[in-house]
Hints:
Porin; 8-stranded antiparallel β-barrel
Amino acid sequence: MATIKPKSQQPRLYERVDFAFACLEKSEPPSILTSSVRLEPSGMVLEMTYRGDHTYLLRGRRHDSFYEASTSGPDGPVNARWTAMENTYVGTWVEAGYDYLFSFELPRDAVLPPS
C-alpha cells in the first residue's frame, strides 16, 4: 500500500527562478541567473547554468534558520549560505576568493518553517 506524504514533506520544484548576484570586490553590475529550486524536507536544491557551459548544483542542508551548501564552480570551490526573509531568500556565495551576495524569491507558500 502506498503512503501519501503530507504536503510539507513532498519535494516541490520551482523552475525559472531568477537569482540576483552582486560581487562585493568587483565593480560590475549585478547579474541575473535563472535557476530551478527544489524544496525537500531536509533541505533545498539549487541548480543553475552559468554561461551555458557550467551547471552549479547546490544541495543545501537545512540548519535551524538557514541553508548551507558547497560545490565546485568553473573557478574553484563554491560555498553558499542563505536564509528566508518571508518569501525572499538572501545569502552569501564565495567562489575563487570573491564574495557575492545573492537573492531570489519563491511563492509565499513555498517557504519552509525552521526545523
